[in-house]
Design brief:
By secondary structure, this protein is α+β, with helices and mostly antiparallel strands. The chain has one domain (130-517). The protein is built from 16 helices and 15 strands. It is elongated. The N and C termini lie far apart (110 Å).
């Protein structure tokens, strides 16, 4: 077979087949096509162009092309003060370039280091010198020896929940006392534009009782009836469930006798109210007598809460339960602040049953036609630099104010929520109180009054009630294994653990007397 070379038609005047060529040379779909315009970026038209003109045309086009870079050039940061490297003084023996002696330079560097530490904002800053700033709630007697139990918060967080779920259907043993009706008109009437002055006569004219567990005759009555074998009040219960959030020092007296466990607060400092305990900018602790020292803020917070809890009630309107309060009589009932008490039995383990006394401050009509109980508490503003000025934010950003308070007072508010749940209260009433003048701790204004359901706060603070209850059960079971006697559960300032000591009655009394004779330490936060 012989290969035949096809005929080649030359087009001397342009590209493509010549016009005189036979039309059969091209397929039908390519015949009579007009010239398609193209852009300079399409270089397919010069694939087979090897002429000099084409090369010149391409070089000119490449010369006109420029790469545009929108990235900012790297610039060396300029210092505010440039060190002059000329006219430096000569360095003599024992001197540096500053002209001072080495001892002066070491002091200067030490001062600079201290100034830098004051500006730290990380979490560890709070715990750097906490043992220097806060005094313990009690002096540990050397006769007690080493602690017999050590509950580290890190290990407590890893305790499995198991069957220790937070009880929701507790058995109510008794309701007693009397409470006032909450004035719901104040919720709309009090705003930042129409402040309400906080009255001061309630804290001076009335007595606010805070009895401990062993001073409660009703708890002793339930102990005789064998309703339980562990007895405490709600403030102690909430303290144990949220102790991993505490910063200040506190202690509890635990007595085990005749198959019963009694947990008591050791002093009245246990009922103090902390202010901004969990804040990154802690209150001033340089001087115990400073205006914003923790002890002074605690006294101010207690004064404010006592007055506010009575001012929000309707005058001369009380709800009395079937049984009266065990701490009041007909003679002194007018001088004691009205409080409602609820006694409940809560299961802990097959061998332990808890009887707790819970408190609530007011009642209000519910939608179902009955009465709902309320817990009344206050939040204090003592420095607008920390809170951001509530008078400006509460009107437009109430959620931001609440979120800041939940962060700065996490330990205190979590205790309130647990007390609300134990007492069966449907809502907690929060009053936002601010000083009328920054340096006046006696005159305050009510800027806002809000009510919250416990579930709302639990969701915002991400509280795990089941795990908190499991920690409580673990601690009580560990204490229950020890023989009869008196014990001290002690938390050191800023420590991440709680210690259990075996004490004697005489040594505990001596330590308590010595502690009361010493200057008042930073407060143990109350509920």
């Amino acid at each position: 077979m012989v290969f035949q070379l096809p005929s080649v038609h030359e087009n001397a005047t342009g590209w493509g087949p010549p016009a005189t060529a036979d039309k059969t040379l091209l397929p039908e779909f390519l015949r009579d096509l007009p010239l398609q315009p193209y852009t300079k970026s399409e270089r397919s038209s010069r694939i087979s162009d090897w002429t000099t003109a084409s090369s010149a045309h391409g070089s000119e086009e490449e010369a006109e092309f420029q790469l545009v870079d929108h990235k900012a050039p790297n610039r060396k940061p300029l210092t505010r003060f440039r060190r002059q490297i000329y006219n430096r003084p000569r360095v003599g023996p024992g001197q540096s370039r500053t002209g001072y002696s080495g001892q002066h330079n070491s002091n200067l560097n030490r001062n600079r280091g201290n100034a830098g530490n004051k500006g730290m904002r990380h979490v560890g800053r709070r715990y750097a010198n906490d043992h220097r700033r806060y005094e313990p709630s009690i002096s540990i007697n050397p006769e007690w020896g080493d602690p017999i139990e050590l509950f580290e918060f890190v290990k407590l967080q890893k305790i499995p929940i198991g069957n220790c779920m937070f009880p929701t259907n507790c058995t109510t043993l008794l309701d007693c006392g009397q409470v006032g009706y909450f004035n719901t008109d104040l919720l709309k009437r009090v705003t930042t534009k129409s402040e309400l002055a906080l009255k001061r006569e309630y804290a001076r004219e009335m007595t606010f009782l805070k009895p401990t567990s062993s001073d409660d005759p009703n708890l002793h009555k339930f102990a005789e009836q064998r309703e339980g074998n562990v007895f405490m009040i709600d403030t102690i219960l909430s303290m144990l469930m949220t102790m991993h959030r505490s910063l200040y020092s506190w202690d509890l007296i635990i007595t085990k006798k005749d198959g019963q466990l009694w947990l008591d607060k050791s002093s009245s400092r246990f009922d103090s109210i902390s202010v901004n305990e969990n804040a990154s900018d802690l209150p001033d602790t340089s001087e115990l007598e400073a205006l914003n020292a923790p002890a002074k803020l605690s006294q101010e917070a207690m004064f404010v809460q006592n007055n506010f809890s009575q001012q929000v009630l309707i005058d001369q309107k009380l709800h009395k339960f079937q049984y009266t309060s065990p701490y009041s009589s007909e003679a002194n009932t007018t001088h004691i602040a009205p409080v409602g008490y609820r006694y409940l039995r809560m299961p802990i383990s097959p061998e332990l049953a808890l009887v707790v006394r819970a408190e609530f401050d007011a009642v209000m009509p519910s939608h179902s036609g009955g009465l709902s109980t309320l817990l009344v508490r206050t939040l204090n503003e003592y420095d607008v630099k920390i809170t951001g000025d509530w008078r400006k934010k509460l009107e437009n950003q109430p959620g931001c104010v609440l979120a800041t308070e939940l962060k700065n007072n996490m330990f205190k508010i979590q205790r309130w929520i647990i007390q609300t749940l134990i007492a069966g209260c449907e809502r907690v009433v929060l009053g936002f109180i601010s000083r009328q003048k920054p340096k006046d701790t006696t005159n305050h204004s009510i800027l806002a009054i809000e009510t919250y359901k416990p579930k709302e706060i639990i969701h915002q603070m991400n509280m795990n009630l089941d795990h908190m209850w499991a920690v409580l059960c673990h601690i009580l079971q560990c204490i229950w294994k020890h023989p009869d006697g008196k014990y001290l559960l002690f938390k050191e300032p800023s420590a991440s653990c709680v210690k259990l000591y075996k004490i004697t009655a005489s040594s505990s009394a001596d330590s308590r007397e010595a502690q009361n004779a010493s200057p008042a330490p930073s407060p143990s936060p109350q509920a």
